[in-house]
Design brief:
This protein has helices at about 5-20, 35-60, 70-80, 90-100, 105-115, 135-140, 150-175, 180-190, 195-200, 205-220, 220-230, 235-245, 245-250, 250-290, 295-300, 315-325, 335, 345-375, 385-395, 410-420, 425-445, 455-480, 515-520. The protein is mostly helical. Helix 6 (about 135-140) crosses helix 14 (about 250-290), helix 11 runs parallel beside helix 14 (about 250-290) and helix 19 (about 385-395) runs antiparallel to helix 20 (about 410-420). It is globular, with a radius of gyration of 23 Å.
């Protein structure tokens, strides 16, 4: 984020504060007026609108459409639009379709980034292409009717608007504890929405699907919740990561709806692609996994758990240069600051961390279920507070190989935890707010220089918040007064799957993801 832009935001905030005072809405005898509920929401909406417009300005005045991140999506949608989806992931036909939107040097760059992926040459009959599955082609087909720059502009506008929708959904889920403007602002400044917008990435779409599904669950509609979550088949790593959440919610209808929707989504592509294109996509995924093992840029831009140990970072000689980088004591250089260490034990360590989060989440949720049942309470019915936050954090953190711009869906569990803020101690409140301010700073830093390839503070902060929300959830379940307040933050629908009736419980400079060679070429109660 440029200093001039930061100055512009600060001046705008000061002007808005002055305007609120001048027009008589503020009581000069009440110095905390702007922290009251209504003016706080108004201010949040003003800031959200300002930030959203600034993102659109950055996206529309960038070359984000000429990146492998967006072009691969445009290509897969264009293959559907031109009736050539059955040739997906075949290099020759993909080159021809790319030429319909990219020309000269841009076409050469897209072929290198999307098809060759760092290789010196690739034959037209080889299998390679976008990492997205054919389901994403159905999503992109209407937009790929446009030329890339226009498609990028339309999609980025939609992605910003989806954040506002998420704000209203989160307001309903939290029963107004988090207001719509506040929720939208949290989602908009969560890492790394700004970078995703410039690159034409779809993190706000993933956030919207996750939030809409949780909204249906909070309304007592598990089948519809599952149908919505099944739409994550457009980005299967998130669908797989969230698939075990309905199981831990003890909701068979939620799970069945998710499986039905996902399978239906896949089936809808078959008239366009046939089965062969899907088989080729699995091969492309295998190629990508192999590339992930050696490509430093992908490892350092990722924020997943599996890649965390593979950064050449966890010894003093490599850690200190990164400290010097983030304190502006040295310039960025690839040789010192973007190295990857490989080995079977590192892979095993990453998998152990990934599996540890899954098993810890499942184990603690199962323990909470057991405590609830021993006290005559049935069903995981809370829809905001530490319990769902812990469960959703655990699921989303175990998404396989996600990048810095894929962090935004974790704004949903963060909002669910923030809705519990008034039930926390002063110390805990300050700690949670501090973590969120740190994430906002990370969000700003990701838009500057080499922010996307520095120490993965976001993952470390979110791991801490996940663990802390788990402790809060267990303490809440063990608390003798957990039934003292009824009806807040709970799902009040009839029991799911014919089980015992649920109790109503108390709520308690952006980088593209292309490879290194390609770029070098061109959070205690």
């Amino acid at each position: 984020m440029r200093p001039a832009f930061v100055t512009f935001i600060l001046l705008t905030v000061l002007i808005m504060l002055a305007a609120l005072l001048v027009i008589g809405q503020a009581n000069w005898r009440d110095p905390w007026f702007l922290f009251r509920r209504r003016p706080r929401n108004v201010l949040a909406w003003l800031l959200t609108g300002l930030v959203g417009l600034s993102y659109l300005d950055a996206a529309w005045n960038s070359t984000g459409h000429v990146t492998c991140d967006f072009a691969s999506q445009w290509l897969i949608g264009r293959m559907f639009f031109t009736g050539r989806a059955h040739e997906l992931y075949l290099v020759g036909p993909e080159k021809e379709v790319l030429s319909q939107g990219y020309h000269d040097q841009d076409w050469t760059k897209m072929v290198r980034d999307i098809l060759r992926k760092g290789r010196s040459e690739i034959a037209d009959d080889e299998v390679e292409g976008p990492l997205y599955p054919p389901t994403h082609g159905l999503v992109m087909m209407p937009f790929s009717m446009l030329e890339p720059r226009a498609a990028h502009a339309v999609l980025t506008l939609i992605y910003v608007q989806l954040v506002f929708l998420c704000g209203f959904l989160i307001r309903d889920i939290t029963q107004g504890r988090i207001q719509a403007g506040e929720a939208a602002l949290i989602c908009m400044v969560f890492p790394n929405f700004a970078g995703g917008i410039v690159l034409g990435q779809n993190s706000s779409l993933t956030l919207t699907i996750a939030t809409a599904g949780w909204w249906f669950w909070s309304r007592g509609r598990p089948w519809l919740a599952g149908l919505v979550w099944g739409l994550l088949a457009y980005k299967p790593v998130f669908a797989v990561a969230l698939l075990w959440v309905p199981v831990m919610l003890l909701s068979g209808r939620f799970l069945a709806g998710m499986i039905t929707s996902g399978m239906g989504f896949v089936a809808a592509t078959l008239p366009f692609t046939g089965l062969a294109a899907w088989l080729r996509w699995f091969e492309v995924g295998r190629h990508a996994a192999e590339l992930y093992e050696r490509d430093a840029n992908w490892v350092w831009m990722s924020r997943d758990l599996i890649s965390l140990p593979r950064r050449q970072l966890w010894d003093w000689d490599h850690f200190w240069p990164h400290v010097e980088l983030i304190t502006a004591q040295r310039e960025f250089d690839f040789d010192t600051l973007q190295q990857v260490q490989n080995g079977p034990w590192l892979t095993a360590l990453g998998l152990a961390l990934w599996l540890g989060v899954i098993l810890s989440t499942i184990g603690l949720v199962a323990l909470i279920h057991r405590v609830d049942r021993s006290r005559g309470r049935f069903g995981f019915q809370k829809v905001f507070g530490p319990r769902p936050a812990f469960l959703l954090f655990g699921a989303l953190l175990t998404t396989y190989h996600f990048m810095h711009y894929d962090l935004q869906p974790m704004a949903l569990p963060m909002c669910l935890l923030l809705a519990h803020l008034d039930r926390m101690s002063r110390f805990a409140q300050g700690l949670l707010i501090s973590v969120n301010l740190a994430l906002v700073y990370c969000h700003m830093d990701l838009s500057m220089g080499h922010g996307s390839v520095r120490i993965p503070f976001e993952t470390l902060l979110l791991l801490c918040v996940w663990a802390w929300s788990g402790i809060l959830a267990l303490r809440e379940a063990l608390s003798a007064g957990s039934l003292a307040s009824v009806g807040e933050g709970c799902q009040v629908s009839p029991s799911d799957d014919g089980s015992s009736p649920p109790e109503v419980l108390a709520g308690s400079g952006t980088f593209s993801s292309c490879s290194t060679s390609e770029r070098q070429n061109g959070q205690n109660d």
